[in-house]
């Protein structure tokens, strides 16, 4: 009789419904799906990239409104299960962002519902609130602009490896300890933010002189243990540190990944298994979508051209991730319209096509409709930018001027010439990372020059002995990335293969070998960013007596103003300098491998 009652009760509950105190044969509950959406190195790209095509059309790629559409579609596919993370460098790089010191980006991110962001090196670029990229007056706060953006954001900005230099404590102004604990579909998800250890070298060092950036791995381990102790069942790192993988076709195949110069992989190798469950990376502007030690890592090329996705599945009983179910979608292009033939909106691929047929893009089987609510958020900043963009400078570029990075470029040479001429120096030196766009031929506007030189660098001068100048050149050209500094007043000879011993000789302009005289002093003009030790020059410049480094801007000019003054002094025309200031020795194969 009792057995019959139990059978009847089970039938009443239904074959797949669990009733208190009753065993059923229903299917086990489905794993909990958590969708991690990663973006990185946004760099103020609130507007889409626009590329004119040969047939007169304009193709658009990325931008805030299209990004919002993709995020909305992912949320619709997994309601309540999406975590949107940014891996840093949110602000610096466009007129709308720079003129508002990043405020327009925070408005967009608040609208997007960003859950957390890492603090990138360029978050420190703006210095105090208002004009000027560094503290110059009593009371100026070198971190003022960043603090204002933290106060504006409705999401935490995180850096678990950030410390106050004088006390060793976590800075109170971040409002957190570098971690964030949130619930996603009932699962406790811990987020750890990290900043590249190289931050002082890749922002204005003066703005971060009160801070220290600790090694990533120990900071991540400590933060993970703290989060686990607070109940975190899933731990995700969002880091402004990255790597590079050339082939995204198979996330389990890491043979195309550069593991020798990948800060995020170096960190992961030092962590015990199980410390973190997923990583959203940034900083290197290179793609990743791979499993390393069973940990999924995603990164995009940045600039709002794409996003990455990691799908995690959590067992509802054990509350552990089911690693065999984890899926990666790396570098999903952000397109509102695509070419019907190639299925892309990448203007770099379409600009030379004789005919392009644009059609609405689709994502996850739904049409992409850019978010109309973004436009009103952007309007005030875009109006400011439009006024600045169109301001004529009275200058003309005689020919297109292109930049270089791992090769010498005419535009870099021109900027090095500007530095040397502005300071009446013996040598001009310009880092390739400071030149951010090519310059088209024709009349120039402020906006075009700003895109080339978006950082508020000023013209500084270091007076060096012959051995000091030699050491400076060894450091400039001895980086592992193979970047080639632009030089003026000298010619340099480099080994083909990047590395600390790459610089091998120097000559006067024209090729006459030069022995740097130990008894002579050389005036070297360079951006203040370099004069403060940026881009790896700190080991030498930190040893030079302060009275031999002139940080007060030459004639009060920033580098953009110096470029304009240089052009006007030459009749209003910028000519392309000849190439040939950088020569190579050694086998050609090394240069190819370094790319």
From TrEMBL:
Keywords: Hydrolase, Nucleotide-binding, Signal
Family as reported in the entry's similarity comment: Belongs to the 5'-nucleotidase family.
GO cellular component, one term: outer membrane-bounded periplasmic space
Record keyword Nucleotide-binding present: yes
PANTHER family: 5'-NUCLEOTIDASE (PTHR11575:SF24), 5'-NUCLEOTIDASE-RELATED (PTHR11575)
Annotated signal peptide: 1-20
Listed transmembrane segments: none
UniProt entry tagged with the keyword Secreted: no
GO annotation (BP), single: nucleotide catabolic process
Classification of source organism: Bacteria, Pseudomonadati, Myxococcota, Myxococcia, Myxococcales
Protein name: 5'-nucleotidase
GO molecular function: hydrolase activity; nucleotide binding
UniProt domain 5'-Nucleotidase C-terminal: residue ranges: 402-537
Annotated Calcineurin-like phosphoesterase domain residues: 36-286
């Amino acid at each position: 009789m009792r057995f019959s009652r139990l059978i009847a009760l089970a039938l009443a509950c239904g074959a797949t419904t669990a009733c208190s105190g009753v065993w059923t044969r229903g299917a086990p509950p489905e794993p909990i799906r958590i969708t991690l959406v990663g973006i990185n190195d946004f760099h103020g790209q609130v507007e889409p990239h626009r590329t004119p095509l040969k047939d007169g059309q304009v193709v658009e790629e990325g931008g805030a409104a299209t990004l919002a559409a993709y995020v909305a579609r992912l949320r619709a596919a997994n309601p309540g299960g999406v975590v949107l993370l940014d891996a840093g460098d949110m602000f610096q790089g466009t007129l709308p962002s720079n003129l508002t010191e990043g405020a327009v980006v925070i408005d967009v991110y608040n609208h997007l519902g960003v859950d957390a962001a890492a603090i990138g090196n360029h978050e420190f670029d703006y210095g105090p609130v208002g004009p000027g990229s560094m503290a110059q007056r009593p009371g100026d706060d070198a971190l003022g602009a960043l603090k204002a953006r933290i106060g504006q954001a409705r999401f935490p900005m995180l850096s678990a490896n950030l410390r106050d230099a004088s006390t060793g404590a976590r800075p109170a102004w971040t409002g957190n300890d570098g971690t964030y604990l949130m619930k996603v579909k009932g699962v406790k998800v811990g987020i750890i933010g990290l900043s590249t250890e190289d931050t002082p070298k890749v922002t204005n060092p003066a703005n971060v002189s009160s801070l220290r950036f600790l090694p990533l791995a120990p900071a991540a381990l400590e933060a993970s243990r703290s989060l686990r102790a607070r109940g975190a069942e899933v731990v995700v790192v969002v880091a402004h540190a990255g790597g590079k993988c050339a082939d995204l076709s198979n996330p389990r195949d890491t043979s195309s990944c550069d593991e020798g110069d990948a800060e995020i992989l170096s960190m992961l190798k030092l962590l015990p298994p199980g410390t973190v469950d997923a990583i959203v990376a940034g900083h290197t502007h290179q793609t990743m979508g791979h499993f390393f030690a069973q940990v999924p890592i995603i990164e995009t090329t940045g600039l709002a051209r794409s996003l990455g996705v990691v799908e995690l599945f959590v067992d509802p009983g054990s509350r552990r991730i089911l690693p065999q179910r984890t899926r990666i979608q790396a570098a999903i292009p952000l397109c509102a319209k695509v070419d019907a033939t190639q299925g892309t909106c990448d203007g770099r691929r379409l600009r030379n096509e004789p005919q392009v047929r644009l059609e609405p893009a689709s994502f996850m089987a739904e049409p992409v409709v850019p978010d109309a609510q973004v436009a009103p958020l952007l309007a005030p900043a875009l109006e400011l930018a439009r006024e600045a963009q169109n301001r004529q400078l009275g200058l003309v570029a005689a020919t297109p001027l292109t930049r270089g990075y791992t090769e010498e470029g005419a535009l870099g040479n021109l900027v090095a010439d500007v530095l040397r001429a502005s300071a009446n120096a013996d040598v001009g030196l310009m880092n390739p990372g400071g030149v951010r766009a090519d310059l088209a031929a024709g009349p120039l506007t402020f906006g075009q020059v700003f895109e080339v030189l978006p950082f508020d660098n000023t013209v500084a001068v270091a007076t060096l002995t012959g051995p000091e100048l030699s050491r400076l050149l060894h450091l400039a050209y001895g980086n592992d990335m193979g970047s080639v500094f632009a030089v003026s007043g000298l010619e340099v000879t480099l080994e083909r293969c990047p590395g600390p011993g790459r610089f091998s000789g120097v000559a006067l302009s024209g090729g006459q070998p030069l022995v740097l005289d130990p008894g002579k002093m050389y005036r070297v003009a360079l951006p203040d960013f370099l004069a403060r030790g940026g881009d790896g020059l700190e080991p030498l410049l930190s040893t030079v007596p302060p009275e031999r480094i002139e940080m007060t801007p030459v004639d009060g000019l920033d580098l953009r103003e110096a470029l304009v003054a240089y052009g006007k002094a030459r009749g209003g025309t910028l000519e392309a300098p000849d190439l040939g200031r950088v020569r190579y020795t050694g086998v050609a194969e090394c240069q190819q491998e370094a790319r």
